[in-house]
Structure formats: structure tokens, C-alpha cells
Predict the structure.
Amino acid sequence: MSEAESTALPENTWNPAAAAASLERWQALCEREQWSPDDKSQNLITRVFGASWYFTRFIFYRGQDVLTCLHYPDSGLDDASMREKLLAAMEIPESEAALEQLRINKNEIMLQIFIGFLTERLNQRETEDALTRLAGHTLGIAIDIVFLDNEDKQHFAVLGMGRMAGGEMTFGSDLDLVFLYPGNSDELFTRLGRQVRIFLREIAAMSPAGIMYEVDTRLRPHGNSGVLITSADSFARYHASDSREIWERQMMTRCRPVYDEISLATGAWQGILPCIYRDYDHALLRDAVISMRHRVETELGSPREKFDIKRGCGGIMDIDFITHYYQLAFGHEHSDLQTQSTRTALIAMQALQLLDDETVNDLLSAYDFLKRVETCMRVHDMKSVDTISRHAQANRVIARAMGYHDGPDDADTEQFMTDYQSWTGTTRDIFSRLFELV
């Protein structure tokens, strides 16, 4: 790329080389098709080209039709507008075509959210909230399309787990789902199982319009060895059992109904809350949380030549595990702690004076920093990527995405790495102090 081409790009372009290459192709396409994007749209498109290969492909697929998302990037992100746009897919009678239109509409809304994030009109928390709401609406409408005119839908519910439950999804987040049914008919179980498999295949299908979502069902009772769809009673018995390990209780602090037309999931979830938020022996709880955190970090959080921002030392899971401990230790006394959100749990812990203001503020700032790194990494190809290189220069694009682009590239990238290690160091220091590991 020549110096002239480089200076023509917006200064805050994450990856100038990628942006320039795609921009040249886009301009040739616009000239051939006689499209006339305005300067604002062209600027936004260029920045997207430098940030996300996933959305670059989508823009070329949609062509001139995508310009509406760029002209009005702040509109249509409220719940009513999202649903109205997504529901348009239901007007198509053939299910495969309807699902393809749903993919298009979902990805157009997600592109709007990304532009909001890219231009800093949406902060990290607002971006995660919008992405989670979009996922919930898309999930429900995809189910409605797959189960169209099928009465079995009235005997079906879904629990969301993890980041979906907490309203803290990023780009590329999986949907962690548990499927429930009333459990009163083997025939119904068979039919619903067949429909759920169709749904899972369709929602994860890759097409020219992109993908809806990857789905993870491993958090269902008994994991991969369990049945795909569980009766509500079996789900309740499983999680009410005294034999459940602490890590399973931790997991269930991040659970809520996400598709529940007959309140089946709500009843099952509310029924197990007293079993999750019970009176634990704090010493045993502490030891179990520390042990599981050490196991995750040792087995999964130390890849060679990489920093794992999620599972590694001082990573996101340090903050998650701190909140898990305090929620389980004190949640039976304080209902404000019975939340699915890590951020909300920290704020509740602060209000209850379980942690001091400085500690909570440091954890919230570290959480926002690390989740922003995760967001910037994953939006490139909408994959659940959780690692960055230990070598600074390999992280130049991520550093620019994080806002480190005011000085020489080498110095900015080194500063990003310094700040990354500072925040993970602060997080691990707090984790060690709270769990008396120092």
C-alpha cells in the first residue's frame, strides 16, 4: 500500500492494509454498478473493511442494500424496532427462505451495532446489551420459523446460560442453551427432539449472508452424555440434588429463561434458586472456587506463546469467579446478588459493602478493558477467540482497535501490552487478596 493510499484512509482504521485492499474492490464495484455512496457511508465502510472480514463479506454480499444501515446507524436498536425488522422474515412462507432472510436481517442489525461500537456511540456495556437483546429476538423468531404451525411449540422452552443470561454477549459469542419440555409424553419428546435438531442445524448454518449463531448445549444436565431436550422435572431434580458440585452451582448463577411461552422455563428456574443460593460453608465454598479456577487456568488458560484473556492469569474468569463466590456465599441473605450479570453482581457487592469501592471500581474497569479486547478480537471473523500473542508486534491491529493509535505503531502496541498486563495483574492481585492466597 502506498503512502498516498494510507493517508486517504480514516486515521482510526484498525487495519489500514486490509481496509485499502477491500476499499479498492468496493470502489470498482460501485463504479460498475453505478452506486453512489456518500462520503459518510464511504468512511464507515472503509473502517468496517479494516476491522472485520465477516462484515466485509456481508457488505459485498448485500451491495447497495447495506447502505441503509450506514445512513441510519443509530436507529432500529430498540427492542420494538429489532423485532419488527426480524419478524419480516416470518412473512416468507417457505422456511428455508425465511431463515435466510432472518440471517440477513440479523446481520444488518448486528452491523449497525458494530458501527455504533466502532464510532463510540455505543460503549462496551451498551454494545453487549444490544448484542444480547438481538440474540434473544433472533432465537425466538428462528424457533417460530422452525416450529411454524406446529402445536408442539406450546410445550417447549429454552434457558439461556452464560453471557446470554447475563446480558454480556460480545461479537462471536455462542448461545449457551438448555431445552426443556413438560416431560409427560415419550411421543412429544421424540417430536421435539427432531425439531430441536433441525433448529440447531439451521441456526448454525453458514450461508452467503453469514451465520445466525453457534449454539452450545453442553451445559444441559449431564453435559454431552445427557439427552438434548430435558423434562422440566428432571432439570429441577438434577440441580436440586445435594450431589451437585460447586462449579455447577456457579454455572447456574448465569441462567435465565429466554424462550418461554408457557412459563415452563420460568417455573423450573425459579424452583431451583433456593438450591443454588443456599447457606454454604464459606471455607468449603472458597476452596472449591479456588480449585476450579486453578484447574481451568492450568488446563485451558496457558496456551504456548499466548495470553488467554478469558481463562488465563488475571483474565475475565478471575472476575467471574470472584462474583460467583460472593453470590453463592451471601445470595441466600441478599436477593440483589441473585443476578446473572457479572457487572451487576459487582455493583451489588459494593452496595452491600462486601467489597470496598476501590476494589469494585478496579474490577469493573478491568472487566470493561478485557471484554473490549475480546470484542475487538472476535468481530474480525465472528469466532470465539480468547487469546492474543505474547509478542507485542503481533497485536498491532488489536492495539489500534483498542484506541492505541496516536503515536508510532511500535510504541502504541507496547503501551497496549503494558496496560493489558497491568489490568490482568491488578485483577489477579485482587483475586489473591480476596481468597487469601498471598
About this structure: The CA atoms of residues 28 and 404 lie 31 Å apart. The longest strand covers residues 175-181.
